[in-house]
């Protein structure tokens, strides 16, 4: 497999807008279906959401998906049918395993300020597992200037939270202008510029909302040209691949 970098600009994303929601979709989602843009590796959803004050997603079902939520600004209230409830804020990583079936709601915890978050879905290793939930706070100093493993199912690679996928891990970093990190090596990588502006070796400049889908690549140097926040998925298999 030849190394390849597929740049996806922020402006090309499909957008769902309602009176209370602006949701920008990196992949096909809901009414926005493109058969040529359904996933990369095992990542099926990368939604960049802004929810208005005092509103949100009412109770709705999911199944057989690992759902990771990373709040950029504001506070997001979570409640689910297996008894978990709480508020997610910047630096608090959250994973919900929908498994055999779960109901949950996600609502803006503020009546005055919007909440901005990125929600990412990856396929689990097996269907029908027991639904589950995990969250863990990551110190802001740990995220400063380096990639930190937020969630991982890769054996031997611990993350703040666990994933039910042995071939996937999510890393994050908050960079000051001039800071740089190296991307991990993997058959599939997804680099998302969640905030700010960066430049990526071999790719060029990326602005907020831009993404790069790497195939059989890694090790590239990513530098911040202004304060930035990165979300990087490291994936060692693709959707539907059979394990040996």
From TrEMBL:
Organism: Mycobacterium paraffinicum
Binding note for cofactor: Binds 1 Fe cation per subunit.
Stated name of the protein: Quercetin 2,3-dioxygenase
Family assignment from sequence similarity: Belongs to the pirin family.
Annotated Pirin N-terminal domain residues: 12-122
Keywords: Dioxygenase, Iron, Metal-binding, Oxidoreductase
InterPro entries: Pirin, Pirin_N_dom, RmlC-like_jellyroll, RmlC_Cupin_sf
Coiled coil regions, renumbered to chain: none
């Amino acid at each position: 497999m030849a190394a390849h970098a597929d740049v996806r600009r922020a402006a090309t994303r499909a957008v769902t807008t309602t009176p209370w929601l602006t949701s920008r979709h990196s992949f096909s989602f809901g009414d926005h279906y493109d058969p040529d843009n359904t996933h990369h590796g095992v990542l099926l959803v990368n939604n960049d959401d802004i929810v208005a004050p005092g509103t949100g997603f009412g109770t709705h079902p999911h199944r057989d998906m690992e759902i990771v939520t990373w709040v950029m600004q504001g506070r997001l209230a979570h409640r689910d049918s297996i008894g978990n409830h709480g508020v997610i804020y910047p630096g608090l990583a959250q994973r919900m395993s929908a498994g055999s079936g779960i109901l949950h709601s996600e609502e803006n915890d503020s009546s005055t300020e919007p909440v901005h978050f990125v929600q990412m879905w990856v396929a689990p290793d097996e269907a029908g597992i027991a639904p589950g939930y995990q969250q863990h706070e990551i110190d802001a100093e740990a995220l400063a200037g380096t990639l930190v493993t937020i969630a991982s199912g890769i054996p031997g690679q611990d993350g703040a939270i666990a994933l039910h996928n042995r071939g996937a891990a999510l890393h994050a970093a908050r960079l000051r202008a001039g800071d740089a990190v190296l991307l991990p090596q993997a058959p599939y990588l997804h680099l998302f510029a969640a905030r700010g502006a960066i430049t990526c070796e071999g790719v060029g400049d990326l602005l907020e909302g831009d993404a790069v889908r790497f195939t059989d690549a890694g090790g590239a140097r990513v530098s911040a040209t202004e304060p930035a926040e990165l979300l990087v998925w490291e994936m060692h298999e693709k959707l539907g691949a059979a394990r040996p």
